[in-house]
């Protein structure tokens, strides 16, 4: 599968086209909109989430609730566009307009953003041309794409959920989810303001987010994604570019403001001996091959083991601050405070939703790379046959 997204933060709409989905896959806008709403939620979100309610329109590739096998096109309209038509319009400017009179031009790049380097790369003197596309607003349609991928995974017996494990050093007690299914975890997460499974830690996170907002500052954290039901042997040890963990890592780091990724025990492995890291292999007639532990996070040699895949991403504090950092005006070269756009004091809860969906896409894509089928029922049959094969291998 593959997809492209198009659109600017304050443009008329965000658009994506998905190619490679099997036919006969049930898809509805209602399910996608549920995930889009979750992305806009979470404690610490800014004023824009109050202005717009993201909803998707399926404009191609689906008929009567099922995919056709042709490309699927999704559109999310920006409700705030009506206030930006003159600023972000596609039509050329009139000859008699002074470029300096164009509203909301930006010449003071924000530290930590793509503003300055992006301006250098594409030759933009008005840095709004950079920030409009580099904005995390683009993740809206990536969540929509991931929601479609989750619909496919659900039909294959694969489920996925994300939750916040840490915000500004406040760590959740993740042992609270031991023995729980992804759906049980989801019920807890969706009822929590920080999308956290630990109510005590969540209350402290809320306080920290509120304090950061009052101070005009921002804070980051860690999110975890769990995938259950993944067949063993998906991915490859043969070629570096087909390793599943490498693809998942790339997906996690493609999210705005994400700077680190780990699987299973992650960086804790550096502080342990091999006997405390690797998972012993066991077999039973009922379950086939499993592991006594899951310290490696469901991945060995670039392939899925059949155990739950556990991947975490680190999100830095959002670089747009209401008490902006020192910058330089690219026109005058004089020192100034950086430009200020609408922003969140903490977007870690919302980012966990994005993480869930970009990982879902990579999992679904890896499945379709290994099990080729144009129709969903054929794909389901292939997956079932493969599960039986690996169980008795």
Fill in the keyword field for this structure.
393 residues, alpha+beta, five-stranded antiparallel beta sheet, four-stranded antiparallel beta sheet, 20% strand, globular
Short description:
By secondary structure, the protein is an alpha+beta fold.
Spatial ordering of strands, largest sheet: 8-7-9-15-10
Assembly context of the chains: single chain
Number of helices: 11
User: Order of helices and strands, N to C?
Assistant: EEHHEEEEHHHHEEHHEHEEEEEEEEHH
Average pLDDT, all residues: 93
Distance from N terminus to C terminus (CA atoms, Å) equals 29 Å
Tertiary shape = globular
Radius of gyration: 22 Å
Largest sheet: 5 strands, antiparallel
Strand segment tally = 17
- Give unreliable regions as ranges: none
Look at the helices and sheets and give the structural class. alpha+beta
In terms of DSSP E residues, the strand content is 15-25%
What share of the residues lie within helices? 25-40%
Function: This reaction introduces a second double bond into the aromatic ring system.
Protein name: Chorismate synthase
Cofactor: FMNH2
Organism: Lysinibacillus boronitolerans JCM 21713 = 10a = NBRC 103108
Describe the structure.
Helix content is 32%, strand content 20%. α4 crosses α5, α6 packs across α10 and α9 (244-253) runs antiparallel to α10. The protein has eleven helices and 17 strands. With 393 residues, it is of the alpha+beta class.
């Amino acid at each position: 599968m593959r997809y492209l997204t198009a659109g600017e933060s304050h443009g008329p709409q965000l658009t994506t086209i998905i190619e490679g989905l099997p036919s006969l896959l049930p898809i509805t806008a209602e399910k996608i909109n549920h995930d889009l709403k979750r992305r806009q939620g979470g404690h610490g979100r800014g004023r824009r989430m109050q202005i717009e309610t993201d909803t998707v329109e399926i404009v191609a590739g689906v008929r009567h609730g099922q995919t056709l096998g042709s490309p699927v096109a999704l559109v999310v309209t920006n409700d705030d566009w009506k206030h930006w038509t003159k600023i972000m319009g596609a039509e050329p400017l009139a000859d008699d307009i002074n470029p300096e009179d164009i509203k909301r031009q930006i010449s003071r790049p924000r530290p930590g953003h793509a503003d300055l380097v992006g301006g250098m790369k594409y030759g933009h003197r008005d840095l709004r041309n950079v920030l409009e596309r580099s904005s995390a607003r683009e993740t809206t349609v990536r969540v929509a794409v991931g929601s479609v991928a989750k619909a496919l995974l659900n039909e294959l017996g694969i489920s996925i959920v994300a939750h916040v494990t840490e915000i500004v050093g406040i760590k959740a007690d993740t042992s609270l989810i031991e023995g729980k299914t992804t759906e049980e975890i989801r019920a807890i997460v969706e009822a929590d303001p920080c999308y956290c499974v630990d109510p005590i830690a969540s209350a402290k996170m809320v306080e920290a987010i509120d304090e950061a907002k009052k101070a005009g500052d921002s804070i980051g954290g860690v999110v975890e994604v769990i995938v259950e039901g993944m067949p063993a042997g998906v991915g490859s040890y043969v070629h570096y570019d087909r390793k599943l963990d490498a693809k998942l890592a790339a997906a996690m780091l493609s999210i705005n403001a994400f700077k680190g990724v780990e699987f299973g025990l992650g960086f804790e492995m550096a502080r342990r001996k091999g006997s405390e890291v690797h998972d012993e292999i066991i077999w039973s007639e009922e379950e086939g091959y499993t592991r006594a532990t899951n310290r490696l996070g469901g991945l060995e040699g670039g392939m899925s083991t059949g155990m739950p895949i556990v991947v975490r991403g680190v999100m830095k504090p959002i670089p747009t601050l209401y008490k902006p950092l020192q910058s330089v005006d690219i026109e005058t070269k004089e020192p100034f405070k950086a430009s200020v756009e609408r922003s969140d004091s903490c977007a870690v809860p919302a980012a966990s939703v994005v993480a869930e969906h970009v990982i879902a896409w990579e999992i679904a894509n890896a499945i379709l790379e290994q099990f080729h089928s144009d129709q969903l029922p054929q794909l389901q049959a292939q997956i079932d046959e493969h599960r039986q094969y690996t169980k008795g291998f």
